[in-house]
Amino acid sequence: DSGVTQTPKHLITATGQRVTLRCSPRSGDLSVYWYQQSLDQGLQFLIQYYNGEERAKGNILERFSAQQFPDLHSELNLSSLELGDSALYFCASSASSTGPPSYEQYFGPGTRLTVT
Amino acid sequence: AQSVTQPDIHITVSEGASLELRCNYSYGATPYLFWYVQSPGQGLQLLLKYFSGDTLVQGIKGFEAEFKRSQSSFNLRKPSVHWSDAAEYFCAVVERGFQKLVFGTGTRLLVSP
């Protein structure tokens, strides 16, 4: 158990809908990362938040957005869903609030999104 | 272009045999290097990492990896594979000055009895 939690575990929804994925980082971690794992694209970085602020952006679609709240949990919002958005979405955390920057990321179990 | 390459999509190893999974990277400066394992239906678990120093690093579950700067490689090894090692293995890097992980395409390990 990495200490990173994600809900829900599975999500099935229809095209055009909007969903929210939730992530709670390890205790004390300030950074949250979102990754998408799909058969055709592999594991791809979407976005990073550090202590509530966006730190880096990857291949994230405009239909997708994220935020990190004061309690450090994060949500990934996916809207106008398409069949191609079906994937496993992972959250990871790192960067303890004490000590030097950490480049190790610890992953949650993921949310499997199926768009029908 | 910057990339992480895992040339083997699938590898089958007999239980008890040794294992080596290959990883090559193409970056200007040596990035931070990682190996992760993903068991079926599971998240990604960090096996080991290399930042600097000793080029042979030990990880969890009996895995080790060797960094070779001249070959831009970071190969994962295990002397004796167990059936429970069957999983997908990902090599990943963090480019210095950044924090996002860039993953290879993964190698699926099958363990035969």
Percent of residues in β-strands of chain A: over 45%
Low-confidence stretches of chain B: none
Largest sheet of chain B: 6 strands, mixed
Mean pLDDT of chain B: 94
Class inferred from helices and paired strands of chain B: mainly beta
Q: Any idea what the radius of gyration of chain A is?
A: 14 Å
* Most extensive interface between two protein chains, with residue counts: A-B, 26 and 21 residues
Task: Report the C-alpha radius of gyration of chain B, rounded.
Answer: 13 Å
The helix content of chain A is: under 10%
Count of helical regions of chain A:
0
What kind of sheet is the major sheet of chain A? 7 strands, mixed
The N- to C-terminal Cα distance of chain B equals 40 Å
Task: Give the number of DSSP strands of chain B.
Answer: 12
Termini distance of chain A? 31 Å
Counting DSSP H or I runs of 4 or more residues, the number of helices of chain B is 0
Q: What global shape of chain A is seen?
A: globular
Write down the oligomeric state.
heterodimer
Residue-averaged pLDDT of chain A, rounded?
A: 93
Topology:
The complex is a heterodimer of chains A (116) and B (113).
Chain A (H helix, E strand, L loop, with lengths): L4 E3 L2 E4 L5 E6 L4 E10 L3 E9 L2 E5 L6 E5 L5 E5 L8 E10 L9 E2 L3 E5 L1
Parallel strand pairs in A: 2-11
Antiparallel strand pairs in A: 1-3, 3-8, 4-5, 4-9, 5-6, 7-8, 9-10, 9-11
Chain B lengths: L2 E3 L4 E5 L4 E3 L2 E3 L5 E7 L5 E7 L5 E3 L5 E5 L4 E6 L8 E8 L7 E2 L3 E6 L1
Parallel strand pairs in B: 2-12
Antiparallel strand pairs in B: 1-4, 3-9, 5-6, 5-10, 7-8, 8-9, 10-11, 10-12
Structural summary, described in words:
The complex is a heterodimer of chains A (116) and B (113). Chain A is mostly beta strands. Helix content of chain A is 0%, strand content 55%. Chain A contains no helices and eleven strands. Chain A has strands at residues 5-7, 10-13, 19-24, 29-38, 42-50, 53-57, 64-68, 74-78, 87-96, 106-107, 111-115. In chain A, the strands form two sheets. In chain A, strands 2, 4, 5, 6, 9, 10 and 11 form a seven-stranded mixed sheet that branches. Chain A has a four-stranded antiparallel sheet with strand order 1-3-8-7, with no helix packed on it. In chain A, a hairpin with a 5-residue loop joins strand 7 and strand 8 (74-78). Chain B is mostly beta strands and 113 residues long. In chain B, the strands form three sheets. In chain B, strands 2, 5, 6, 10, 11 and 12 form a six-stranded mixed sheet that branches. In chain B, strands 3-9-8-7 form a four-stranded antiparallel sheet, with no helix packed on it. In chain B, strands 1-4 form a two-stranded antiparallel sheet. In chain B, a hairpin with a 4-residue loop joins strand 8 (64-68) and strand 9 (73-78). The radius of gyration of chain B is 13 Å and the shape is globular. The termini of chain B are far apart. The chains are: A mainly beta (116), B mainly beta (113). The interface between A and B is medium-sized, with 26 and 21 residues.
